[in-house]
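Chapter summary example.
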Amino acid sequence: MVETRTIEVKEEAGSESDRMKELKAFDSTKAGVKGLVDAGVEKVPSIFIHEDIIKVDEFSSESKKSHLSVPVIDLSGVNENAALRREIIEKVGDASENWGFFQVVNHGIPASVMEEIVDGVCKFHELDTGVKKQYYSRDPTKSFRFLSNFDLYQGPRTNWRDTMECNMAPNPPNPEDLPDVCRDIMFKYSKYVMDLGITLLEVLSEALGLEPYHLKDIGQYYPACPEPERTLGFSSHTDSGFITLLLQGQLGGLQLLHENQWVDVPFLPGALVINIADLLQASELITNDKFKSVHHRVLARNVGPRISVACLLRTHLQEGVAPGLYGPLKELLSEENPPIYREMTVKEYVMHRYKTGLDGTFPLLPFKLH
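The structure predicted for these 370 residues follows.
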């Protein structure tokens, strides 16, 4: 199991209040990071600086990049051919246990649909700021919202990215609540992703028992950064929920922590990046850390924008959804294989994530028994 260290952020006297003033000033613009870029910023503002956790040589030497490569799995025949399905199950299980990440090809989502969703996300983020401001919100119950950094006031550092997000299932939003530039493609893409997500969960487990699913589409926009060596597009974190299906833009930049080193997840045309999230690692679908929810991050670039579309399959805080308990499957526990985590409700887990933000720690640690 890869261990990650807690990021310790030391503030000088008075700097915390200064930082809060900067955060509030940035938030009040409702223009996000792109607003800074549009204003012609040439230096990364102090709230975005990550120099205390970034090693300069990670950006300066191509020869030092890891030789490891994330598994790529062909899903052809997963629902039509029993023999191929068995092979796919084995590959997905191995990747989930040893990496927590893999890429899938021949997954059934047309290339034209993938191109259209990336274009829709880009068009939204490049709308006039005055238009986007009407969607800017930190209220997670909004059916559609635009914001920069969900943990702006909780995280130790601010990330160089803006986000649009929408809860698409099990209760689809009112179409009129979504912007014209991305409305139709968000509904179309979400249907494809939900079908693929259910297939992947079936492959990951013989019994789901997790209905209803909560699908959140998140369109990330990473503007070009004038000083990419001083900040991150997305600091080290694990994902909430069960699995994440990510459509990564051509600029790449995604890295995962494997064997105590950061490994690039390269852009692969037509592929989706799949990663195990926190609740699947500790949920009743599996036994005690068999599948890994691993830390990953996104590097900032001095070119862009970088566009990504992340779809999170999860239960969440939502009306009409039972607050069920999640924990190791009791039938598979024994003296030799005792439970690692206590049972938790989704509310407990989500509240912990929102309280701490992306602070570099593993979100499941507070729920460990020993």
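To summarize the output: The radius of gyration is 20 Å.
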